[in-house]
Structure formats: structure tokens, C-alpha cells
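Hi Y.,

Following your request, here is the sequence exactly as I used it, all 149 residues.
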Amino acid sequence: MHTTGRNLPGLLGEARRWFEEALSQSLERSGEVPVSPPQIQLFAVLDEQGATVSELAQRTGVTRQTVHQAVHGLVDAGLLEQGPHPSSARQRLIRRTAEGERVHRRASALLEELEERLAERIGRGAVAALREALEAPWGEPPAVGPAPE
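Below is the corresponding structure, written out as C-alpha cells. Let me know if you'd prefer a different format.
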């Protein structure tokens, strides 16, 4: 077993960046509108019902300002739209446009191809084990270390 001694969160972040960079390059190569990693992350957590900026910030773990910037870039690119929220006059609901849905389906297909390439590189068993570990319920994040006095 090869180990670098680096911590798991750092390795997971590096793996996510590998997929984001590969997806971004693949989308651009296939003639799609270029998207940044924050835009990819936002697009990935946006469901069919849509979401507010606050909900997207919570889902992605970034600030509302970062989400606002990503949303505006994707609106300008014609991939997202903002509309009235059905239960709040103060909030806007963010949804994919028809073009955004098409690009989302294309990105999903590309991610499947990238996962296949990864399996060719590190082995199908390794990818299956990684998927199994990441899909397992981890429970609530624990507090570790000495208890405060």
C-alpha cells in the first residue's frame, strides 16, 4: 500500500480538484461554455426544484458572496435563471435553464467517463472501495481531543 503521509481531507480535496479540472477541460474541449470549479460545485448541488443562494452556500460550504458570483456567471452564460421564490418575496429561486439541463446531462456523462478512466488507472476494486466508503453513513461529525476543563 502506497501512502504519502498526507491527511485524508487534503487527499479528498485533491481528488475533487482532479475531477473538477478534468470535467472543466472536457466540457471546454467539447465546445461547452467554460465553467470554473466553484461553478461546477454549485451546478452539482443544484437539484431540479431549485434553491436559494443561502441553500446553495450551505450545500457547497462556501460563502454567500462566492455563490452569488458563481450564480451570476452561470446566469450570464445562460445555464441558470433566477425567479421568484414561491414562499418568500425576499428570496430568489435559482434553477437550471433548458440549456443548463443539457449541459448538466453532458457533465454527468463526462463524469462517468472520468470515473472509468480512473478505474483503468488505479483499478476497479479501488474505485469500488472508494465509492463504498464515501457512500457509507459516517454519522454526525465527532468532536475529538481533550474535553474543555
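The chain has a mean pLDDT of 91.

Thanks again,
Q.
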